[in-house]
Amino acid sequence: MKYIWCNIKNFFKHKKLIFILTVFSVICSCIMIHFSYGLYQNYQLKKEYDLSDEREIALSLQGDFDEESDKELNDDESYFKPVDSVDNYITMNLLKKYVAEFNNSFTDKLKYIEATAIVDQLPFRMNFSVKDGTIINSDEYEKEIENNAKLESGRYFTDKEYRNGEKVAICWDYLHWNTMSSPVSSRMAVDKNTLHIQGKDYKIIAYGIIDVDRPTIPVTSLEDTTLFHQRLVFHFKKPIRQEQYNLVVEKTNKILGDRAVVEPANLPDDDAVYLYNTIIMVTIFITIVSAINFAILYRYILSSRKQSLMVYRICGMSFARVVLLYLGECVVLTVPAYVIGALLFEHVILKKVSKYYDYMSNSYSSYVYMVLFAIYFILSLLILLFMIIYALKTDKELDVKGGTR
């Protein structure tokens, strides 16, 4: 082993540029191998997810409510009264803490979050987005309103109104029924410009036609003690991934505990490893090219070590031991450089390219790293072994007879 370290030390000291190029070639090869695999894995997963129709992750909320009918309410509507301890329900305050757990890389992929709040014992549907851990107005839901509903007068909420939780409301008058129903009319002031909700005055900023039997108000305007009922649904712009589903499960368990259960979703398996013939052949090809480059550089180093090799052979070192000596030197150079390349790829390059390849970040596991390293190491070892033996046998100046030690 001391001969190996001595050779490496002299290699770096006298052939510094070649040493750096040798290490650099291994690092680049490692990065290329891992990137090629991730690109292929991304392609396979994208094909599966494109066939998936799952665009929602739903939470089933556990708190129970008693429904009590009221003759004044149209369409057999009911009042909802909580029957469990407050600790069994998701409140507005808890909802804020929950959505704050999700970073922008997750929330930017959402259309909106849908929830049903029990406001003055009546269910109100809420649709909102999240940015920087804060509840904001949903541009996507606003587009749906514009496409599917008609505002006869007024406007939709501004971002400032929604973010600040201002007391504003939109009343929907489907076929001119709802403004006469108890949920709306009983809360409306005489001038029809104000609604009384949770003991507060909400300014009516718009009237429209849509099949909704409740006013629309910013969820941020609700009291922190407001309870939520039935389901909390994440609506995504694209088919959801296992990574996103797992994150929702993790945050739900952490913040909401037993108050909510994430409903099952039929998703492709992100943990599937696609080590098909194509990517294996690509890895082998890159490894062979890398090993040949390494071998050419190392062949040059061997040609500059004729004198030291002659000394080894004259002093009795056998041919086999000389081969093992140089092969060991290659291993000591290759393995650390490969590890550096793998770490550089995982902690630097992968974070950058994941912005452009949605399914690449979860493509790597310990098993994948071991398989790729095994392919690289075994092929490199075989090619270098052949090169060293060939160089020592064909170069007459290197083929010095020695002992059998």
Molecular structure report:
- There is one protein chain.
- This protein has 405 residues and is α+β, with helices and mostly antiparallel strands.
- The protein has two domains: 2-48 and 271-394, no CATH class; 54-262, no CATH class.
- Helix content is 48%, strand content 19%.
- The strands form three sheets. A six-stranded antiparallel sheet has the order 6-5-4-11-1-12.
- Strand 2 and strand 3 (78-82) form a beta hairpin.
- The longest helix has 35 residues, at 16-50.
- The relative contact order is 0.17.
- Residues 174-180 have low confidence and may be disordered.
Q: TL;DR of this structure?
A:
The chain is α+β, with helices and mostly antiparallel strands and 405 residues long.
Number of strands: 12
Molecular shape:
rod-shaped
Number of helices: 12
How many angstroms separate the termini?
A: 15 Å
Query: What percentage of the residues does DSSP assign to strands (E)?
Result: 15-25%
How much is the radius of gyration in Å?
A: 34 Å
Mean pLDDT: 80
Q: SSE order, as H and E?
A: HHEEEHHEEEHEHEHEEEHEHHHH
Largest sheet: 6 strands, antiparallel
Share of helical residues: 40-55%
Structural class: alpha+beta
Strand order of the largest sheet: 6-5-4-11-1-12
Query: Regions with pLDDT < 50 over 5+ consecutive residues?
Result: 174-180
Number of separate structural domains = 2
